[in-house]
Amino acid sequence: MEMFYYLVFGALAAVVAALELGKSVKDRVATSPAFNSFKNNYILVYSLMMSGDWLQGPYVYYLYSQYGFDKGDIGRLFIAGFGSSMLFGTIVGSLADKQGRKRACVTYCITYILSCFTKHSPQYKILMIGRVLGGIATSLLFSAFESWLVAEHNKKGFDPQWLSITFSKAIFLGNGLVAIVAGLFANFLADNMGFGPVAPFDAAACFLAIGMAIILSSWGENYGDSSDNRDLMTQFKVAAKAIASDEKIALLGAIQSLFEGSMYTFVFLWTPALSPNDEEIPHGFIFATFMLSSMLGSSIASRLLARKLKVEGYMQIVFAVSAFTLFLPVVTNSLVPPSSEKGGSIKLGGCLQLLGFCTFESCVGIFWPSIMKMRSQYIPEEARSTIMNFFRIPLNLFVCVVLYNVNAFPITVMFGMCSIFLFMAAILQRRLMVVSDLHKSTKAVEMNAEDEPLNP
């Protein structure tokens, strides 16, 4: 069965290489040198930020266990991180809009570096503080950088269509290639070099510091609404009013929460799904395979966006496929007789599920640049970071509930629930397309009416 992993990884690598090398003229967009310089600068910074995040992932749980904490203690630490992101996310998002997105990005670096330093302490309270800082940093990572990019892109007068290029490349590298390299580098530092599980966190702090230096030296500042008379509560009201008054924004927020909630739940469930009887599976290699699948998805998304296909249209298919792939564990557990043998290599059901999970990760790779594109179209600039963090409130609440009750339900029930959420996302995406088309047609009629000369 070990050959199975290499076959899957090799096949994915071949497809990704073929897609990237085989791009036609239709898949490439002519851009200016000024934009290319701007894009490359952002992608470099984004890749450094994501490397600081990805380096920590493989060893968080292991480090806590090495300090002697049990599953319950570790679970509470994880809940603290998501809870912190939920409670403080809207505040830091509003501050980013008001005080400046560049400052918010620098704050992300400082906050996450401090969180990395706390990993040197075996004291539970210090580690809890680190998780709270990490939750705040996560809120900034997934709002401030994108908000800065969109505002700066528009301020420089670049073609709005070119945003898709930056989004796709950032996800392809930051959420794909960087994740693979970071996982291997973390393993090299902790195991091969013998520095222990805290070494990847020190490396993450170094990458974050380098990224912060680039931001300070090369980025300009931009704001949402920097009016002096707008306090945090006013910013919250503006964001809440925008969501309540515009169905497109509300639908987009619901779609994002449903998909990302299912995605983060999958992160916790894939290991027990592939090894229900403690089968020996190569976790690091499987993680790298998932990231390669995500690269495949982002490569597909770059082609779809370059050809100006309607995002609202093809994302319906992506969500439907995602719903099927996470329902696969329910199907395989029903059709493939479960084995009672403990240990050993991955079973047939696990192999089928692994293929499905790789497909799901490809959908994740399509999702990120596509949702970024839709957010750039629908979310108003004056409260962009605030609204984006409003979207993360139900997401973080959902993940906290799942973590708290992860042992209360069978794994098939959890996957079935995620599948239902993704199917709901497909339905809401259909509604978003209808509302968007109706809004565009109404606006076109109004513009034509204004252009018509008055009858004598």
Automatic annotation (TrEMBL):
**Entry keyword annotation includes Protein transport:** no
Keywords, alphabetical = Membrane, Transmembrane, Transmembrane helix
Q: Which SUPFAM superfamilies match?
A: MFS general substrate transporter
Q: Which InterPro entries match?
A: MFS_trans_sf, MOT2/MFSD5
Q: Which Pfam families match?
A: MFS_5
In terms of CDD domains, this protein maps to: MFS_MFSD5_like
What stretches pass through the bilayer? 6-22, 43-62, 74-96, 128-150, 170-189, 201-220, 285-306, 313-332, 352-371, 383-404
Protein name, entry field: Molybdate-anion transporter
